[in-house]
């Protein structure tokens, strides 16, 4: 229902006057209390009502509610931290991918050319017979001469290079230039690779694809071919599988509903399953989490209470000898249903199964150590939410109503996950890892009335075994 | 024989507030007195069982509301009505005073009056009101909407006079 100028209503409510009962009412109450045998309070105990020290968290709640504009999720520090992590991860990933792609392309294409020694840089110049005026930029087909810097006068011919003989040893991937087909090389800019991988000199394809028949006078400078080993990450990647076990500790950041007592730190354990390909991994598994929450349980009842008792005179007679009146009485008790309320603590024990699905990119990796960025989601399924009711033992009473301040968690929930994984490999077959992460629940943490987004800081630590 | 001084102090501390609630719910001065008397007799009878989880005032207020509602309750007290379902916004008259509002509240039917008092004046939530009055949350909301629409009409009459 839409309600306008509600402040007017609030103002009018505050201005409604308070009523005062008649002064004689207390006398009636006191008389009734006397009549029913309800004792007064001796001493000065109730004169000063008990005072309770307010928990410090109440002040924080008040401050939060007094804020003129409650920060939305998009303005919250959680969102800023997550954005920062994701942005950093994206930039780093893009940079690394770009770097890796260039490097890989160079590696593939460089199979068309041979490597020179570090000291003997290959130079490509035009034939003196053709196009002498433009030796450095325009190279006519079939006029390639290779010269060594150290021995510029000495040249070798195409015939010195045996096309059937690999220029590198078995197990290494370099082949002679002439072994490449024209279809691969046509319309492609190739890079004659210097020993330093950082500096590449472009040459045009048509030079390299010229046949020996067209270039009878070609000379090539001698060049010592040095085998270059291929790093692991250039080898053909294969998919790897890891399994593991872990222990996790988490700190919850949420509003505690009034009248409830919930633990803000929790422990859990589980198993991990990981599929790794190159620097990427897809992590999943199962995690078991259990905790107990407490609330107040209110019981309204009607109890059959003795409200007063008296002696009923059954009969009487006069003693003929003494003249005294003798009364024969019996005790009579009067009961009534008196309403009452009982408060006790009830608990709810939760057991949840959590299934994460997290993508990891290792920004740094060597044989013993790796650092990975994580992003993903987690799915929580409630296995059990068992409420235990307090044992209420009321004699001669009828319960008329019950209530509790316990709030219940939903059957399922989603979390977003962002974090880091640091792994150390003491051996070839296993690794130790630690994984700090921040996780944010997508649905309200309780079934109702808890609007603040609930987050948790989690640290997982465990072992991974490589299959 | 008994020392009632301490109980009297407790009574003095809460009697006005509880009497006001009782009066507003019952709309009857003498019934409100009966309610107050019954409430404090129960409070002093069961004071030993009060464990201090809620404030003493809340505990006494809950007893007051339950006792007052029990006094006025009939089968039709919280039965449904269709007036709360309108989509038109409620606009409170700007000239409304506390006295006007109280008069208008006391003119409401018992069910709507009780729900309005508990939600808007005493600050209970619908869930708590529903538990307290043994009605559903939907009924509580419906009665509140009805109360507001009715109050709007009544207050318009008061302020235009």
Describe the protein's architecture and organization.
- The complex is a heterodimer of chains A (467) and B (161).
- Chain A contains six helices and 17 strands.
- Chain A has helices spanning 6-15, 24-35, 56-66, 77-109, 182-185, 205-208; strands at residues 3-4, 123-125, 145-147, 156-157, 190-193, 200-203, 219-220, 240-253, 260-261, 265-277, 280-318, 325-365, 369-388, 397-404, 412-424, 430-441, 455-466.
- In chain A, the strands form four sheets. An eight-stranded antiparallel beta barrel of chain A has the order 8-10-11-12-13-15-16-17. A two-stranded antiparallel ribbon of chain A has the order 2-3.
- Chain A is elongated, with a radius of gyration of 44 Å.
- The longest helix of chain B is centred in the last third of the chain and has 24 residues, at 137-160.
- Chain B is globular and about 55 Å long.
- Helices cover 69% and strands 1% of the residues of chain B.
- Chain B folds into two domains: 4-73, Rna Polymerase Sigma Factor, Chain: A, CATH 1.10.1740; 98-159, Arc Repressor Mutant, subunit A (Orthogonal Bundle).
- Chains A and B meet through strand 1, helix 1, helix 2, strand 11 and strand 12 of A and helix 1, helix 2, helix 3, strand 1 and helix 4 of B.
- Strand 1 (3-4) of chain A pairs parallel with strand 1 of chain B, so a sheet runs across the interface.
Question: How would you concisely characterize the structure shown here?
Answer:
Chain A is built from six helices and 17 strands. Chain A is of the alpha+beta class and 467 residues long. In chain A, a hairpin with a 6-residue loop joins strand 5 and strand 6 (200-203).
């Amino acid at each position: 229902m839409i309600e306008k100028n509600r402040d007017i209503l609030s103002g009018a409510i505050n201005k409604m006057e308070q009523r005062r009962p008649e002064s004689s009412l207390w006398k009636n109450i006191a008389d009734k209390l006397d009549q029913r045998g309800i004792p007064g309070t001796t001493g000065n105990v109730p004169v000063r009502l008990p005072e309770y020290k307010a928990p410090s968290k109440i002040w924080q709640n008040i401050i939060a509610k007094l804020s003129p504009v409650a920060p939305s999720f998009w303005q919250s520090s959680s969102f800023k931290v997550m954005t920062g992590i994701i942005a950093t991860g994206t930039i780093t990933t893009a940079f690394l991918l770009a770097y890796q792609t260039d490097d890989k392309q160079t590696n593939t294409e460089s199979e068309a050319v041979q490597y020179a020694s570090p000291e003997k840089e290959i130079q490509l110049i035009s034939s003196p017979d053709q196009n002498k005026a433009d030796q450095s930029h325009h190279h006519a087909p079939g006029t390639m001469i290779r010269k060594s810097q150290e021995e510029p006068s000495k040249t070798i011919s195409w015939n010195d290079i045996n096309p059937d003989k690999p220029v590198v040893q078995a197990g290494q991937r370099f082949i002679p230039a002439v072994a490449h087909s024209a279809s691969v090389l046509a319309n492609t800019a190739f890079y004659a690779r210097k020993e330093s991988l950082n500096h590449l000199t472009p040459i045009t394809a048509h030079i390299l694809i010229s046949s020996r028949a067209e270039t009878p006078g070609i000379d090539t400078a001698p060049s010592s071919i040095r085998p270059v080993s291929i790093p692991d990450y250039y080898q053909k990647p294969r998919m790897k599988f890891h399994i593991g076990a872990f222990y996790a500790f988490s700190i919850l950041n949420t509003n505690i509903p009034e009248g409830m007592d919930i633990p803000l730190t929790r422990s859990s354990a589980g198993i991990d399953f990981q599929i790794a390909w190159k620097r990427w991994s897809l992590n999943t598994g199962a995690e078991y989490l259990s905790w107990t929450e407490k609330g107040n349980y209110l019981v309204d009842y009607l109890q059959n209470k003795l409200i007063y008792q008296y002696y009923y005179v059954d009969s009487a007679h006069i003693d003929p000898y003494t003249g005294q009146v003798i009364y024969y009485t019996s005790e009579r008790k009067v009961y009534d249903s008196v309403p009452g309320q009982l408060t006790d603590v009830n608990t709810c024990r939760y057991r949840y199964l959590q299934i994460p699905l997290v993508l990891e990119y290792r920004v740094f990796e060597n044989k013993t150590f790796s650092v990975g960025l994580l992003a993903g989601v987690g799915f929580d399924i409630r296995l059990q939410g068992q409420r235990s009711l307090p044992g209420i033992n009321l004699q001669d009473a009828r319960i008329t109503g019950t209530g509790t301040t316990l709030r219940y968690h939903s059957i399922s929930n989603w979390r977003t996950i962002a974090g880091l994984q640091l792994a150390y490999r003491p051996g070839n077959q296993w690794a130790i890892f630690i994984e700090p992460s921040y996780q944010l629940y997508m649905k309200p943490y309780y079934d109702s009335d808890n609007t603040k987004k609930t987050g948790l800081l989690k640290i997982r630590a465990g072992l991974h075994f490589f299959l | 024989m008994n020392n009632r001084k301490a109980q009297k102090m407790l009574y003095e501390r809460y009697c006005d507030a509880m009497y006001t609630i009782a009066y507003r719910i019952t709309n009857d001065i003498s019934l409100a007195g009966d309610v107050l008397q019954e409430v404090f007799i129960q409070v002093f009878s069961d004071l030993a069982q009060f464990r201090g989880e809620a404030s003493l005032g809340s505990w006494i207020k809950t007893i007051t509301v339950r006792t007052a509602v029990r006094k006025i309750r009939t089968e039709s007290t919280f039965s449904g009505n269709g007036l709360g379902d309108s989509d038109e916004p409620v606009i409170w008259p700007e000239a409304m005073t506390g006295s006007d509002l109280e008069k208008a509240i006391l003119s409401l039917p018992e069910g709507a009056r009780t729900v309005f008092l508990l939600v808007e004046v005493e600050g209970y939530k619908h869930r708590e009101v529903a538990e307290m009055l043994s009605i559903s949350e939907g009924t509580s909301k419906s009665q509140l909407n009805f109360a507001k629409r009715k109050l709007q009409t009544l207050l318009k009459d008061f302020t235009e006079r």
